[in-house]
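Dear colleagues,

For the upcoming journal club I promised to circulate an example of a predicted protein-ligand complex. I picked one with calcium ion because it came up in last month's discussion. The inputs are reproduced below in full, followed by the predicted structure.
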Amino acid sequence: MQVLLIEDDERIAGPLAEGLGRYGFTVERARTGAAALAAPEPEMVLLDLGLPDMDGIDVCRALRQRSNVPIIMITARGEEIDRVLGLELGADDYLAKPFGVRELVARIRAVTRRTRPPVMVQPARAPGTGHAPPSDAAQHIGPLTLDRRTRQVHLAGRAVALAPKEFDLLAYLAQDPGAVCSRQQIVDQVWDPHFFGPTKTLDVHVAALRRKLGDPAWIETIRRVGFRLHVPDGTTPTADSVPGHDETPG
Ligand code: CA
């Protein structure tokens, strides 16, 4: 697993990188927030909150806006407010200094298990990929990650189990987030190019997707035209369900 260790203090980062290496992790290091944000996306982020150029909280926010890579905050600051703020901004866990490498490894494993839970619907996937980590081809749309290769969808790090047609519909809308797709386009591409008649099944699938994504705003209805996918304003990954105004089919 590739870990990005964001820590300016060599006395901490050096032994930590070495220790993680012994456990089989590949550790990239960044000493500043700017360097961290410029680094290639790792599979796990260890983030110190006290950085020389910017607040680690802002690094957390910036990372979370573009990806759902697991983030564990590491800090000397023990204040509750930092922990709460960090977790609200999308960090997955928190570890206060001092801590041992073994404890950190245990947290990394726990976070990995949590953020990559077993999927309920297991579509065909490449052989030998037991956990199917998000591939390079995975598309990130706000907190939503869509992997066409493995047909897996994650929202804020949690797997979303979709039926095959629900996945196809989401993947189609995600080809151009924000763009309006007409009902006929969607039906042609996702169902059958020779489909005629009422597109009720489309509404049923849109309603299901909205439910599973936890916020109907993910898929906006454009009246008399179709639908478009976009990141809801003020997305709260923990929102369970939003009272839906799903279109009643038929
Ligand atoms: Ca520091």
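Two points we might discuss: Residues 118-135, 236-250 have pLDDT under 50 and may be disordered. Helices lie at 10-22, 33-38, 56-66, 80-88, 101-115, 164-174, 183-191, 200-213.

See you all on Thursday,
B. R.
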